[in-house]
From TrEMBL:
Lineage: Bacteria, Pseudomonadati, Thermodesulfobacteriota, Desulfovibrionia, Desulfovibrionales
Protein name (Swiss-Prot/TrEMBL): Myo-inositol-1-phosphate synthase
Cross-referenced InterPro entries: MIPS, Myo-inos-1-P_Synthase, Myo-inos-1-P_Synthase_GAPDH, NAD(P)-bd_dom_sf
Family that this chain belongs to: Belongs to the myo-inositol 1-phosphate synthase family.
Pfam families for this protein: Inos-1-P_synth (PF01658)
Amino acid sequence: MAQKIKIGIVGVGNCASALIQGIYYYKNKQPEDAIGLMHWEIGGYKPFDIEIRAAFDIDARKVGKDVSEAIFSPPNCTTIFCPNIPLIGTKVQMGQILDGFSEHMKNYDAKYTFVLSDAPQLSQEEVVNILKENQVEVLLNYLPVGSEEATKFYADCALKAGCAFVNNIPVFIASNPKWASKFKNAGLPIIGDDIKSQVGATIVHRILVDLFKKRGVKLEKTYQLNTGGNTDFLNMLNRTRLASKKESKTEAVQAVTAKRLVDENIHVGPSDYVAWQKDNKIAFIRLEGKLFGDVPMNLELRLSVEDSPNSAGVAIDAIRCAKLALDRKQGGALVEPSAYFCKHPPIQFTDDQARKLVEDFINA
Ligand SMILES: NC(=O)c1ccc[n+]([C@@H]2O[C@H](COP(=O)([O-])OP(=O)(O)OC[C@H]3O[C@@H](n4cnc5c(N)ncnc54)[C@H](O)[C@@H]3O)[C@@H](O)[C@H]2O)c1
């Protein structure tokens, strides 16, 4: 039987729910009928060769529950595509709140927002011990956008416990040379920052910008407006938490333009919260440019996707690449997987280049 990858999860929200559902969903599939995966096998690991050994959250409706129950507890609202998950035997533990909880989240009905648990918060030493005792190999960060301090707290826990780190959120760790060198010195791999979705607004926007470049069309102005109704979008109503999210999403598009657009001609970001959309995200993308003879053209696109399974389709590969690097004793920021899987990697490539690099990394 294949060895299992032992993971820990920070933030048992919608993305964690989709990922864990997927681990069980693909157990009963054969490679030829498994839909929705970029890779059936990476380094000998199948999508279901992943075990959840530790989980941390701060919501009263999740802390203390088995992970298999916590993922279906409010305010999680993503699609349930794998309802019958057996007891996993891992209970969600109270983490450290730090800046994971934004004050404005108190102003909404409990079914839409986070409800703080009054369980005692774990110290860093306790979190590290839990990771060590459960032999966690890869720690995944799924905290809300704007959790700068909390992300650094858990990244430090990963370093102290000897875990690889997959940073799914736009707090700059893998792309921050200081943090990347801490992981390098510890001999631990890190993938980040800010996971791209399988077919999400970022990759579609980048591919269209790349198309303009390849076909000789001058891109003059572009926007990407996004709406959704999950806690990720609710949290992002506090605009002070958005600086790095905006930078990450905007740079992902700027990185593939023929010539950088001046700031006023590019607008990319989360735009509004629409409660009834739940985990459905809608992106409106517009590109304006000039083609042959300086003649103007524009392109409008509307993308509708379930946000969390869309990220899980990438996370399931990121986890396996992190484990592959652990097996190879490769520490530091993993340039190739980060470039293909994340919006704000240490080094940006076009998606075609990044895909090739990641295949080379897997097959090395
Ligand atoms: N397609 C996508 O869904 C996608 C893409 C890129 C990035 N992301 C990012 O991934 C992150 C997770 O997204 P989500 O939709 O699962 O969000 P979510 O709001 O559903 O989940 C966040 C979870 O973190 C918990 N939490 C808050 N503070 C905490 C703390 N200090 N310690 C432990 N847990 C804490 C919350 O209680 C909640 O369960 C977000 O930052 C999001 O922007 C998502």
